[in-house]
Amino acid sequence: MMEDGSIPAENGTDRDGSALIFLGTGCSSAVPNAMCLIQKSDSPCHVCSQSLSIPPERNPNYRGNTSLLIDYCSSDGNHNYIQIDVGKTFREQVLRWFTLHNIPQVDSIILTHEHADAVLGLDDIRSVQPFSPTNDIDPTPIFVSQYAMDSLAVKFPYLVQKKLKEGQEVRRVAQLDWRVIEEDCEKPFVASGLLFTPLPVMHGEDYVCLGFLFGEKSRVAYISDVSRFLPSTEYVISKSGGGQLDLLILDTLYKTGSHNTHLCFPQTLETIKRLGPKRALLIGMTHEFDHHKDNEFLEEWSKREGISVKLAHDGLRVPIDL
Ligand SMILES: [Zn+2]
Ligand SMILES: [Zn+2]
């Protein structure tokens, strides 16, 4: 990103090699926070007010629901596009970032869990699929846990239903090929040619969410919703255990304090020190985070601790060898 916060135009034209594209880096309610804009205040929220004067493309404090697009370039030079999570802001993210980064399609989908900010855009998957009024297209593989699958069958029965009922009209809906994955670090799976290891983590003490480890040449872990690490998962992604990560993408909700279902900034930084990756990018932030200001703090922290840590931002493209 440029000093003024804009994203260089050539970002979208470099198509050699693999890259990670951060489609969203915000919390469930996204940033700006609507209340900060609709309620008058003597001391308006600086971060949210920016969205009224700076277009999202140049505003790193404008954050959609957490989502990552992996542009995977295999050894034959073919690009496959793997989308992690399809949240409430999916359509907006497609319009904004698929266009900027020349993403022509989604080849497979992986879901971390079935909360609204991870799945409520699934209806709009049809907008990135070929048009067929009779739904006669190749379905997009979608990888989910059994728990998420059961919940999605209730939320979106028409996306799960295989055959039309007697007398039911055909209506155009997203075509998905559901594949159930295990909540187990020992049970990897392949999506669009890339191997993924599920990383079960606690997202509140009553709920298991999945992160994912992927990449052969670079080890990348993506963990968007976590309040506590299970020892078996922590081992797989820690420098002292399964091996040092080249890049850790990690949840951080609030600047201070703690939260029952997410890590907040102090715990996120502690976790990074414990896991010891080469670098880390943070996602899932509320409006408490001010991109430039907090990245200045993190620059100092990174020097002191010897691990590069930054806040990611929507639209960020990170070239990486996978
Ligand atoms: Zn605000
Ligand atoms: Zn969640």
Description:
This protein is α/β, with parallel strands linked by helices and 322 residues long. It has a single domain, classed as Ribonuclease Z/Hydroxyacylglutathione hydrolase-like (Metallo-beta-lactamase, Chain A, 4-Layer Sandwich). Helices cover 23% and strands 24% of the residues. The chain is built from 9 helices and 15 strands. The strands form 2 sheets. Strands 7, 8, 9, 10, 11, 12, 13 and 14 form an 8-stranded mixed β-sheet that branches. The chain is globular and about 65 Å long. The model is unreliable at 1-13 (pLDDT under 50). It holds the Pfam family Lactamase_B_2. Residues 82-284 form the Metallo-beta-lactamase domain. It comes from Brassica rapa subsp. trilocularis. InterPro entries: Metallo-B-lactamas, RibonucZ/Hydroxyglut_hydro. This is Metallo-beta-lactamase domain-containing protein.
CATH topology: Metallo-beta-lactamase, Chain A
Rg on CA atoms, Å: 19 Å
Structural class comes to alpha/beta
CATH top level label: Alpha Beta
Question: Which homologous superfamily in CATH is the superfamily?
Answer: Ribonuclease Z/Hydroxyacylglutathione hydrolase-like
Shape: globular
Average pLDDT, rounded to a whole number, is 93
- In this structure, how is the largest beta sheet organized? 8 strands, mixed
- CATH structural architecture: 4-Layer Sandwich
Encode the helix/strand succession as letters.
EHHEEHEHEHHEEEEEEHEHEHEE
Euclidean distance between termini CA atoms: 22 Å
- Helical content stands at 10-25%
| Distinct bound molecules | zinc ion
Count of helical stretches: 9
Protein name: Metallo-beta-lactamase domain-containing protein
Pfam families: Lactamase_B_2
Domain Metallo-beta-lactamase: 82-284
